[in-house]
Every structure is written in C-alpha cells, then in structure tokens.
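Quiz preparation item.
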C-alpha cells in the first residue's frame, strides 16, 4: 500500500481514538477506512469530531461487533484492524477469559471468516500471551491464515512508559498480500546518527519541567491529581488508557510484515 496508487480498504473494529490507523499512516500504508465499529458513546463522539475535522476517513460507525452486517463487506476488505477488549486477559482483572461478557474475539473471528480480509492486524495486552492468544492463533490457522505476533512497547519508540502490547498480524494464504498491493515503507522509530527521529517529543514525566508546547497542569481541589478541570476527564483518561500508541503500532506493523514476508518466501 505504500507504493500502490489505489488505497487499501480498512475495516476497523474496536477503533478507540484511532491509534492503529495512525500507526498505519506512520508506517507508510496507503489506505482508506470504510467502516468503524465502536460501542462507547464518548469514543464515538471523539471519532465523529475527527471525521468532521478530516483527521480520520469519513465512514459509517457501527456500535455492536455482534451484529455487524458482513454482507456488503465480503471480499471487499483488504485489511481488518482492531484492539479487541483486553479485560478478559489483563493481569489487572480476574482474567475470566472466555467466561467474560466482554470476550469479543469469537464475533471478530466469525467476521473474518465471512469477509475474508487479505490481512488482519490486532492489538491486545501482554497478558493475552498466557490467556487466549493460543486460541486466536488456532482460529486464524483454521481459516487458512498465516500469523506472526510479538510484544512491542511504547518505551521502544521513545515514550516515558512501558505500555507493552501484543500485536498479531495474519495474512490469508489463499490471497498473498503482495498480489493486492499491501506494502509499507521501513518505519524509523529510533533517533538516527544526527539525533533526529520521526517521533515528536513526549509529554514531560512526573517531576520534570513541562515542555513549552504542553498545556499547564493545574491541581484542582478534590480531583485527586493533575487536571485541566474538564468535565469529561475520566472519559478522556479511559479513552487514552484503552488506546494504542500509534508509533508502537507502526513498528509492530513493519516488523511483523517482514516476518510474514520471510514465511511466505520460505513457504
């Protein structure tokens, strides 16, 4: 897609603030999102605002993974992306796995089987490795997809925090990606010899002097910490907490693409 004139069609599940889509842009992928699937009202409002300001592609937003209408999208999606709910697998919770009502992978798997995207690209928490990932890989293999996965962190791309995440990439064996124009440039995530990088500065860490471009952090009585006093502060924190760091998604895309290319050549 980096060199293809025709943008690849992307179907985005559990979109959040669009971190994966932003990561694909950083990786040089030429694409257009044709539909979003997101259930939280504040997140949807954020998506609508980004669509209105042309930060994201104009496309319909569906609110329920379980009822997504696969018919119009069958064989028309080149890339399917998503950060499906992490609560069933996260070490921060009871890790109920398949018994968790928020376990949406089975519905996503059914959509993959019905639509047959050329490539899938998913994100989840590190705890997914010991809870559920094996089933995801097995399901993709049963649908004739070749997979690669790995752990990537925000710290790798210069962030002042770890935020380790599992990224999964799967290519359809029956429709090799190189035939459909899926490609990407090499994403430079680390400073080069001149100390320059494609990454912007991260916000100052706790105890550090703020950058000139940062908004002042004001302590409001009773708010329990730094805040700008926004009435939707909790919603914003939830949105960011569940979101994907774009630079991490970019390096994950580039790395896993190379791994699958090697597998395809060897296979």
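Solution:
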């Amino acid at each position: 897609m980096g060199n293809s004139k025709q943008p690849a069609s992307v179907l985005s599940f559990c979109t959040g603030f669009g971190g994966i889509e932003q990561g694909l842009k950083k990786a040089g992928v030429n694409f257009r999102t044709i539909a979003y699937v997101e259930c939280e009202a504040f997140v949807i409002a954020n998506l609508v605002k980004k669509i209105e300001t042309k930060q994201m592609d104009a496309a319909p937003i569906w609110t329920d993974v379980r009822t997504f209408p696969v018919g119009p999208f069958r064989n028309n999606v080149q890339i399917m992306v998503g950060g499906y709910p992490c609560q069933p697998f996260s070490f921060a919770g009871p890790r109920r796995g398949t018994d968790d009502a928020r376990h949406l992978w089975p519905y996503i798997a059914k959509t993959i089987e019905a639509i047959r995207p050329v490539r899938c690209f998913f994100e989840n928490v590190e705890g997914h490795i010991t809870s559920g990932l094996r089933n995801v890989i097995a399901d993709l293999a049963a649908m004739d997809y070749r997979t690669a996965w790995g752990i990537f962190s925000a710290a790798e791309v210069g962030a002042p925090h770890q935020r380790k995440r599992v990224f999964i990439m799967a290519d359809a064996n029956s429709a090799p990606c190189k035939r459909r124009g899926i490609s990407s440039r090499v994403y430079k995530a680390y400073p080069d010899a001149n100390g320059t990088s494609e990454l912007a500065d991260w916000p100052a860490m706790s105890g550090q002097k703020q950058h000139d471009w940062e908004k002042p952090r004001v302590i409001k009585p009773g708010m329990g910490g730094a805040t700008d006093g926004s009435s939707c502060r909790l919603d914003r924190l939830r949105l960011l907490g569940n979101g994907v760091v774009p630079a991490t998604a970019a390096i994950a895309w580039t790395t896993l693409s190379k791994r699958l290319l090697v597998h395809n050549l060897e296979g």
